[in-house]
Amino acid sequence: MRVVHAASFGISAMAAIIAIAGHDWTEANAAGKESYAEAVVDAAGNLGVPRDYRTTYQFLGSWAIAGDAGRGSKELHAVLASPGAIDAYRKDGQFPDGTVLVKEVFQTTTQEMTTGTVSRAQTLKGWFVMVKDSVGHHPGHALWGDGWGWAWFDASNPSKTTSTDYKSDCLSCHVPAQASDWVYVDGYPPLRR
Description:
The chain is an alpha+beta fold.
């Protein structure tokens, strides 16, 4: 009986999370609820790393960055999305306003294993955080534009970004993904319809 009650509570809680994530910022405020975007963006438009992303966000995919010399990868990027973002994207091919994407960037270690040469996450270097904002909630803020908020955080200080201007610090890496709203959606299997 306890298992049934716990499962019912868990399903209800997940449904509430998904419902909140799909709303834009204004709708979430009107309902008296905080959206995922508001949990990582302060009133001045400063971004932060969400505290609970590893337990509440959905895994999108990972990228292995090839090593400069030798075999294996030098970095591993793991990307997660705020709850509800994947379902919303699969429905209409767009991330709704308030979607938060978090990319963890790890230095790797490479070794020979029975399956071959394997690189795995070793040391967290930092996080790259993007928040969808097609409305333009923070006009004139140097970390907001082209429909997103953008910021890099070193692992040593997740509360303060080292980014100063998204155009010079972030956008250049995303130019090849401009046609897909600056996100490399082809690398994320859960987004495929």
